[in-house]
Amino acid sequence: MEAAILVKCDKVWVNARLATMAGPGLGVVEDGVVAARGGQIAYAGPRTQAPDFTAEETVDCAGRWITPGLIDCHTHLIYAGNRAQEFELRLAGASYEEIARAGGGIVSTVAATRAASEDELVASALPRLDALIAEGVTSIEIKSGYGLSLDAERRMLRAARRLADERAVDVTTTFLGAHAVPAEFAGNADGYIDTVVHDMIPALAAEGLADAVDAFCEGIGFTREQTHRVFETASQAGLPVKLHAEQLSNQHGAALAAEFCALSADHLEWLDDAGIAAMAHAGTVATLLPGAFYFTRETRVPPIDALRAAGVPIALATDSNPGTSPMTSLLLAMNMGATLFRLTVEECLLGVTHHAALALGLGDRIGTLEAGKACDLAIWDIETPAELVYRIGFNPLHARIRRGQ
Ligand code: DI6
Ligand code: FE
């Protein structure tokens, strides 16, 4: 009898095809095994190289594909109300400015969100979260930015944190106080930024409610100088930064974000070569948001070829928000990334796994099927990984595993 070394673990998935997303390419393993111990991956790879396991439970995947649990790395999932009426006005020809002047737009979401209790914010976000979870999402980033006062921003961030108690999902929170100028600071954006940097960031950082800080650097948002002040304060508070950059115009925001070693710069339709070089140098992820591009009927595509050539990691996310991307499907975001931006299947899948993890600063913990990472898995009824990108409005998820459960 051979003296085989038995490795004890909690659960093993066998007879699976793996897309480990750990490279090269998708990291495909045709006859694969994943083993979980203590919520982490103890082994993921070919059956032929696997140690001998004693597992409490063994699952036969019958040839199904396993990917890492999906990661939606840019959402505004917490808000009250919706903007369906504004959508109808826009269909009838109204412009964003006209709607804003009539009290609509982002201001209307701020009013509704300020009027909502923390419980109400949690309750209204849960169906959106459930839609993402149903597609195999195991980690999600959620931004504030519809409160625009210390109290209301805090309520949004608390509601975001609470979602992680309500569902088996990891939530990282991002403070987006510099999203818009609230009515009480109309005409005084600098005055509003004063309170963001003096009151909000120090308090919310001290309360542990924000994992990162974001801003909207745009002609209709905040200037580079204002963004710089937000980033400086975030850095002093020990928080990493991200940026809504170059969505509607080139404000050279991505280069500014890279100066602060931002985790990601997001949108990027108007990104230029200097911004790309700065991002490549800083290791800043390019998070592309095709849902917002689609819904606002933009026509200028992000500079994908130049991002590729510079080796900038590309992430993909829903940007789920009531104004410009009322989308709760990360599978659809992948399809849009391919169809609208011409990303490859490999880029789309990396964009919602490994590269999305990098955009959250969690590259060492989630995003690939590798020993030591969290055992967050999506098991799919598909013949090839391309099917996850190819279909529109079809969800082939068979099972979703978080922390080995
Ligand atoms: N960029 C956007 O497209 C959204 N926020 C941002 O910074 C718009 C959010 C909204 O209109 O409610
Ligand atoms: Fe956004």
TrEMBL record:
Residues annotated for Zn(2+) binding in this entry: 74, 76, 244, 319
Superkingdom, taxonomy of origin: Bacteria
Positions that bind 4-imidazolone-5-propanoate: 83, 146, 179, 247, 324
Reaction(s) catalysed (UniProt annotation): 4-imidazolone-5-propanoate + H2O = N-formimidoyl-L-glutamate
Cofactor(s) recorded in Swiss-Prot or TrEMBL: Zn(2+); Fe(3+)
GO molecular function: imidazolonepropionase activity; iron ion binding; zinc ion binding
Enzyme class: hydrolase
Amidohydrolase-related domain residues: 65-382
Assigned EC number: 3.5.2.7
GO biological process, one term: L-histidine catabolic process to glutamate and formamide
Binding site for Fe(3+): 74, 76, 244, 319
Alphabetical UniProt keywords: Cytoplasm, Histidine metabolism, Hydrolase, Iron, Metal-binding, Zinc
Gene3D superfamilies recorded: Metal-dependent hydrolases, Urease, subunit C, domain 1
UniProt binding sites for N-formimidoyl-L-glutamate: 146, 321, 323
GO cellular component: cytoplasm
Broad class of the protein's primary localization: cytoplasm
Regions crossing the membrane: none
Job of this protein: Catalyzes the hydrolytic cleavage of the carbon-nitrogen bond in imidazolone-5-propanoate to yield N-formimidoyl-L-glutamate. It is the third step in the universal histidine degradation pathway.
Listed name of the protein: Imidazolonepropionase
Organism: Novosphingobium mathurense
